[in-house]
UniProtKB/TrEMBL annotation:
Signal peptide: none annotated. InterPro entries: DNA_recomb/repair_RecA, DNA_recomb/repair_RecA_CS, P-loop_NTPase, RecA-like_C, RecA-like_N, RecA_ATP-bd, RecA_C_sf, RecA_monomer-monomer_interface. This is Protein RecA. It comes from Candidatus Woesebacteria bacterium GW2011_GWC1_43_10b. GO terms for cellular component: cytosol. Belongs to the RecA family. PROSITE patterns: RECA_1, RECA_2, RECA_3. Pfam families: RecA_C, RecA_N. Residues 1-107, 112-185 form the RecA family profile domain. GO terms for biological process: DNA recombination; DNA repair. Keywords: ATP-binding, DNA recombination, DNA-binding, Nucleotide-binding. The lineage of its organism: Bacteria, Candidatus Woeseibacteriota. It comes from the Bacteria. GO terms for molecular function: ATP binding; ATP-dependent DNA damage sensor activity; single-stranded DNA binding.
Length: 256
């Protein structure tokens, strides 16, 4: 079971269901303060009943003192202290319960930086220190079907990893009516491994053109379920064995 702590108060259930979220197995909380959000998170972790918790987002975890103060009051460091205290308390409980805790965050610009990276994230340095994996996620391309925008392409860069080699990069599609595109991922990896070939804008398998253009090829894989399942199976086999399979994927009987 999963939980979503919506500190931004921005979750649209209809949109979430459209892109594949199972709302029946999702616990949703929309706390008023940062302290309340982190207390709810701690309770869920210590219960041991939740597999994954998403806190959206660190930037929206507003300390109670800031909410109760006046506009313009100085609040330097309050959010960073809140995050530091919370993570010190949560780390041990997360390890014991085996819960995955995901924090989303925003990028901000440092003032007056002339050299080096001007980007920073709100909430202080504690989250960077305690996290096992940090992912820098950016949109790199808008995907179109003709003139209509149908999704976007994103690049995920692993900037920290305690459980595997860091600094690896992956790209994937997020479609407006589908969410993360499995068919797009299969197409990219299939081309990389030579299971699907590309000549110019045409995509082929077993010498037969299946589509012209990446979006058309992605749609072909999405609509041909048997082909999609077999491509997925062969990709996993190639990755596991480390070598190409003797049987071409194009030999699959495609009936639908």
């Amino acid at each position: 079971q999963a939980a979503f702590v919506d500190a931004e108060h921005a979750l649209d259930p209809i949109r979430a269901e459209t892109i594949g979220v199972n709302l029946d197995d999702l616990l949703l909380s929309q706390p008023d303060t940062g302290e309340q959000a982190l207390e709810i998170t701690e309770t869920l972790i210590r219960s041991g009943a939740i597999d994954v918790i998403v806190v959206d987002s660190v930037a929206a975890l507003v300390p109670r003192a800031e909410l109760e103060g006046e506009m313009g009051d100085a609040v330097m460091g309050m959010q960073a202290r809140l995050m530091s205290q919370a993570l010190r308390k949560l780390t041990g409980a997360i390890s014991k319960s085996k819960t995955i805790l995901i924090f989303t965050n925003q990028l901000r610009q440092k003032i007056g930086v002339m050299f080096g990276n001007p980007e920073t994230t709100p909430g202080g340095l504690a989250l960077k220190f305690y996290s096992s994996v940090r992912i820098d996620l950016r949109r790199i391309e808008v995907l179109k079907d003709g003139e209509e925008v149908v999704g976007s392409r994103h690049r995920a860069r692993i900037v920290k990893n305690k459980v595997a080699p860091p600094l690896r990069v992956a790209e994937f599609d997020i479609m407006n009516e589908e969410g993360i595109s499995k068919s797009g991922g299969l197409l990219d990896v299939g081309v990389e491994l030579g299971l699907v070939t590309k000549s110019g804008s045409f995509y082929n398998h077993n010498g037969k053109i299946i589509a012209q253009g990446r979006e058309a090829a992605r749609q072909y894989i999405l609509e041909n379920v048997k082909f999609q399942e077999e491509l997925d199976k062969k990709i996993r086999e190639v990755i596991t064995t480390g070598k190409k399979l003797p049987k071409e994927i194009g030999e699959i009987e495609e009936k639908g």
